[in-house]
Write a structure and sequence with these properties.
Radius of gyration of chain A: 22 Å
Number of helices of chain B: 7
Order of helices and strands of chain A: HHHHHHHEHHHH
Distance between the termini of chain B: 73 Å
Structural class of chain A: mainly alpha
Strand content of chain A: under 5%
Largest sheet of chain B: 3 strands, mixed
Number of domains of chain A: 2
Oligomer: heterodimer
CATH architecture of the largest domain in chain B: 2-Layer Sandwich
Radius of gyration of chain B: 25 Å
Number of domains of chain B: 2
Strand order of the largest sheet of chain B: 10-1-11
Helix content of chain B: 10-25%
Number of helices of chain A: 11
Shape of chain A: globular
Structural class of chain B: alpha+beta
Largest interface: A-B, 59 and 72 residues
Distance between the termini of chain A: 12 Å
Strand content of chain B: 15-25%
Chain lengths: 309, 265
């Protein structure tokens, strides 16, 4: 599958934003009001900023961005529509939570209910992003129970690393947060390895013989393509650049995540180590997302000569 | 609304005969010609004068080589492929805007070019590669089953057929109601063992494909089957002519038929 760069930016940026938002809600639930107004505002602005950049970039790959509002209408059947609705709905409790949690408006009794609603909506939004891919039966590597967990784990891991980095900058970096962020990075790594194991084990059992129905006669191969230059289906579904480098790119994701964990743990001694740790976590998420697209093989490529999909 | 309508009694679709299709591309070009100016026009081509000419087509004719077990020669099957107007079209249910829809009255799957946002998700959901994105129009394109022909009262009755069906010179494309077991297309499917593409995907396509018939006799085109000299006066005349015309060292082979396909000798 061709990776649209705006979709990679969208899913990693807004994923990290929703992950951070959900964890700030957790902080609100456990600690009540933010330690300082500045920390509260800064972390909320970063969370909502990442979400907003992501959502805006997601409209860039559309043929008609000015019609994007129409995507809120089909939530009964479409996970893409549900994601859009949830993304927009989340802003309302998120802004209210930010206002009371940061201490802009003193209403400590509202922090907990708003935290529960905002956190749940943030996680549901990430889940529906994962569901868009997981429900596509045409792509074996996505139609997989791990897909949704990969999206959730990376959202929370990058969110936790960013939360640690913000906290380190504001000078109040408890050891608990180091372990908490490291744990999320470990979970993301474990889920990612589980996902790769799962897609590598799933056999590509649809063949060109089945696609054409000509297996009843014999072995099938493409004799002549229906056109002289690659068409939309081939460039969109048959993208294979990163697939050739998949093994190397997988190692890159693992190395980046391991370094992010080690740097996060170094935060126990040097708090600002959390900054490069967060950067590495985001880098790992971007490469992982690119691979997620590039490694995915689409059933329709069978008609263009792929032997199995 | 991208939720699917209740199953329609009428299921309009195509039946494509892989036995008689000769791969002439008349269906593809007539489809392009009609649909570049009708519903959801344009149907853009790019770099038409360059080496990498590309464009949006709603119907494409593939060629496949099939090797039968025990046969020295493979056979070529021409394979037209377009939207199958599935009964469970995931391309419709994933659409976030309602631009993709399945008509309740006849089951035709369409894209409304006025409301499509060009997110391309529907094309990802289609296992048949039937949807193609039009870069210049910014919307998804697909076979309309020539909805603007089949009900078009400005056309003569005999022209109210999909352009591809009307154009096919060998009668390999058939249009009709596959929801009616007594219709011509349904009878054809029943009689010839018409099949679904990728039934294991669960999309339940309406269009059906008729399999190529078995070879009548795999031996008729083999070298051994060609006529042998029978010793008649004509044979002797040609042998004499062959002897005169052949170089001396090759005359020993004059009675043989050369199956090598080589030009020398």
């Amino acid at each position: 599958m061709h990776p649209a760069y705006s979709v990679i930016l969208f899913t990693t940026a807004s994923g990290a934003g929703y992950g951070l938002l959900a964890l700030l809600c957790l902080v609100g639930l456990s600690h009540g009001e933010a330690s300082t107004l500045l920390f509260g505002l800064a972390s909320m602005v970063i969370a909502l900023g990442l979400i907003t950049i992501g959502l805006l970039s997601s409209t860039l790959h559309l043929g008609h961005p000015e019609r994007a509002w129409r995507a809120f209408s089909q939530w009964r059947s479409s996970w893409l529509s549900r994601e859009g609705v949830l993304a927009v709905v989340t802003y309302v409790p998120a802004v209210l939570f930010g206002v009371v949690w940061s201490g802009l408006y003193p209403a400590p009794e509202l922090i907990k209910p708003l935290a529960v609603i905002t956190g749940a909506l943030a996680l549901l939004t990430v889940m529906s992003t994962g569901k868009i891919y997981a429900t596509l039966k045409t792509i074996r590597a996505w139609h997989n129970p791990w897909t949704v967990w990969v999206y959730l784990a990376f959202a929370l891991a990058t969110g936790a690393a960013i939360l640690a980095a913000i906290t380190a900058v504001f000078g109040n970096f408890p050891a608990f947060l180091v372990y908490f962020a490291s744990a999320w990075l470990v979970i993301a790594l474990a889920v990612q390895l589980g996902y790769w194991r799962s897609i590598d084990a799933a056999p590509l059992d649809l063949t060109i013989e089945q696609a054409t129905g000509l297996g009843r006669i014999g072995r099938v191969s493409q004799w002549e393509a229906p056109h002289t230059a690659a068409n939309y289906v081939q460039t969109e579904m048959g993208y294979a650049v990163a697939r050739r480098h998949a093994a190397r790119l997988r190692r890159l994701v693992v190395i980046a995540l391991v370094l992010a964990i080690l740097l996060m743990l170094a935060g126990l001694v040097v708090p600002l180590a959390a900054l490069p740790s967060a950067a590495l976590a985001i880098f790992a998420a971007v490469v992982q997302r690119w691979l997620f697209f590039a490694e995915a093989q689409h059933v329709s490529t069978l008609f263009y000569g792929a032997e199995a999909a | 609304m991208t939720s699917l309508p209740p199953p329609s009694a009428k299921k309009l679709g195509l039946v494509i005969d892989l036995d008689t299709c000769v791969g002439c591309q008349a269906c593809a070009t007539s489809c392009k010609e009609w649909n570049a100016q009708g519903y959801s026009a344009p149907l853009t081509d790019e770099h038409t004068q360059g080496a990498e000419a590309t464009g949006v087509w709603l119907n494409r004719v593939h060629g496949y080589e099939v090797r039968e077990a025990g046969q020295a020669q493979s056979r070529i099957v021409h394979f037209p492929r377009s939207c199958l107007h599935c009964e469970e079209p995931a391309c419709v249910t994933v659409c976030p805007t309602g631009a993709s829809y399945k008509r309740a009255e006849d089951g035709i799957v369409l894209v409304n070019p006025e409301t499509c946002i060009g997110c391309k998700l529907c094309s990802w959901a289609c296992p048949y590669g039937a949807r193609e994105y039009d870069q210049s129009h910014g919307v998804m394109k697909k076979c309309t089953l020539c909805v603007d022909r089949i009900y078009n009262e400005n056309l003569e009755e005999e022209d109210r057929l999909p352009a591809c069906v009307k154009a096919c010179p060998t009668g390999a494309r058939h249009f009709g109601d596959l929801g009616d077991p007594s219709s011509g297309v349904s009878q054809l499917v029943a009689g010839r063992g018409g099949y679904d593409l990728l039934p294991e995907m669960g999309y339940r396509p309406v269009n059906k494909y008729l399999p190529p018939r078995a070879r009548r006799d795999g031996a008729t085109s083999r070298a051994e089957a060609l006529p042998k000299p029978d010793g008649s006066a004509f044979d002797r005349l040609f042998q004499w002519a062959d002897k005169i015309l052949s170089p001396r060292q090759a005359s020993a082979r004059a009675n043989d038929i050369d199956h090598s396909g080589k030009l020398e000798g």
